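User: Could you walk me through two proteins back to back? I'd like the raw sequence and the structure tokens for each, with a short line separating them so I can tell where one ends and the next begins.

Assistant: Of course. Protein one, sequence then structure:
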Amino acid sequence: MFKLAFRNIFRNRSRTALTLAAIISGVTAIIVSGGFVEDTFVQLRESTIHSRLGHIQVFRQGYLDYGQRDPSRYLIGQPKQVVDLLKPIPHVKEVMARLNFSGLANNGQADLPIIGEGVEPNKEALLGTATTLVAGRALADTDAFGVAIGEGVATALQLNPGSYITLMINTPEGALNTLEFQVVGIFRTFSKDYDDRAIRIPLAAAQELLYTPSVHSLIVLLDDTTATDQATQSAKELLEKQGYSVKPWHELADFYSKTVALYKRQFGALQFIILVMLVLSVASTINMAIFERTGEFGTLLAVGLRRREIFKLVLLENTLLGCVGGLLGVVVGVMLAGIISGIGIPMPPPPGSNIGYVAHIRIVPWALIAAAIIGLLAAIVAAILPGRRASQLLVVEALRHNI
């Protein structure tokens, strides 16, 4: 039966080529679209991590829920001790401290509400690979009273590198403290909303402003994003009993989680549409072949072949076509993905961002397997009704087609 089915698919080469072309096109479309979606996930993930979130963040328990109302109650008093616990964890590349504050920035003419961070500049430079400098230079550890400001802050206050601004901050005790800073650079991150209000100053200057040696959070940078869950679990085992909360980046990035969920549903719908189109295309070709082979099936029934064997023959022929089409589609899809990736696809900034990117087509195993399976299933499903109709032909009527 297998030998007969294999020989039958090459009897009418033009029709076989047409069927294979439909399957190959569908499989290639799934590979290219799946690779594009996967690249979107990866680039969005890395931009989210390397703009400011890091891979893991450590806070005092309760800070994420109540820290906005009373941040002074949730300070990490001994950050160095926590850093010493985190650094030996596998895949940890660097641990950096941050002290958050809010207040007013004044350029001598106008005030602007800002959200600020006291950071360790040289360590932050390792993390902020997705942060773009619009003007000036990056903040450095040697900038005792230097400040890096978001693009929106620079526009609102008409500031340039070299300009001076005064920060007015309320200390945890309720006093008002001010310090003057010189703008050293203007940055742009993945989030436009953040850039419209954000400034960064050295950690020591922020601690002087707030009269505290403590910090609000510790940011962990890993050498491999795929190790995030493993490192998070290790950090939780070390720190949660001591009153700390450990959060991986994906629990803090609400926009990323919702975007991934949306794209996955869209890609699932696309796969279903491609499957339906493949079934209809292949079914049309098979119906034509069944009609032309009516006399052949009548002869096979007349010489003693059973009706269920006719059905199996048609199903087997199209299963072979599905296997061949799926494999060829994977080859063509991989080649096309490589060509497109070599050229690149310029993409506009995502919603809420100022930064565009160049998309590529990633070759991912799950997309290749899913595409090949869909191509095979399409050929099999398309053959069921025509095969059933061929198996139920009346022998006498079918034999007349041989005259």
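----
Protein two, same layout:
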Amino acid sequence: MKFTDVAIGDAIKTKIKSIAIDSYELQVQKMPELVERATPIFVEKSIRDTEYTLHYLSDAIGVSSPKLFSDYVLWFVDVMKNIPIPVKYLFVNLECISEIIENYFDDREVEIIRSYIKNGLNLIDMTGNQESEVTPAEHPLKKYRDNYLEYLLNAERHKANALVQELVKLEYPIQDIYLEIFHESQYEIGRLWQANKITIAEEHYCTASTQLIMGQLYPLIFATPKNDLVFVGACVGGELHELGVRMVSDFMEFAGWNTYYLGANMPAKSIVETLIKENANVLGLSVTMSFHIKEASDLIKSVKLDPRCADVKIVVGGYPFIVDDQLWKTIGADGYARNAREAVEISVKLVRTGGIL
């Protein structure tokens, strides 16, 4: 990543509150209809939403990834359509941020920041003219996934578990159950939460239920013969979304690796110590939210700088890396995987080739 971009991203974070307040005040001038709605709660929420946008903007700039901010804008548009709030509010809000930043940054910095905002504004213009995507062929487990998801959303965890156990009896591959039932349903649950269609409590219930159900399959996963390869799976400090890296760890275990699943919110020092102690071949890092990318980058640097970790290969995964498929290179990883099956394939290749994909 570019040093200039890192500095700009950090600088935005130190000024977020002031920029958000100034941007909101300018937006009220541009949209007089907001004056009638300007209760203390409305003003506070509007400024907080702008701060949220600025956080995503600073994170994207900090890792030189316009795609991350563009993806955030598309998500915000989707949320506004479901609330519903006119998308023009977001459009004008971004325009106001673009104008206000000249009061805080020099010309070169403003040029870089505005290029990201301009991409977002262009996307808002385009959202009404997008062609529908071609629907891929359905997997045979799709009908069961729909039932599984319905059970979870209706708080019927036991029915969801019974469905999975039935699929095992029908001899569907464990890997397919993980990817087509667990992974895909969790993706849909996350989308429903982001679109404000389910509550955070419902999202947590569904995720916790899936973790419990996955645990029922462990006797099958851990029964596979083991090789001498070691995989450590973790989330960076502050990252709480651990289900993805847990799935990867289970896939690695099923493939014969010795796995050390460290879970969520792991301090960098503890991860490095584990890599050394267990003589790990591969570290799998999961990042779900873009504002944890910098922590992942810092951790990767710590691993690469420690001579005792010289042979450790680092594979990253999570939503930001799907949005920007070159981001893994930017932060210094050795590879990235879109799902657990890919993580196994890439890890094996990295070990066999000494780090060349």
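Residues 40-62 form the longest helix (23 residues).

Let me know if you want the two compared in more detail.
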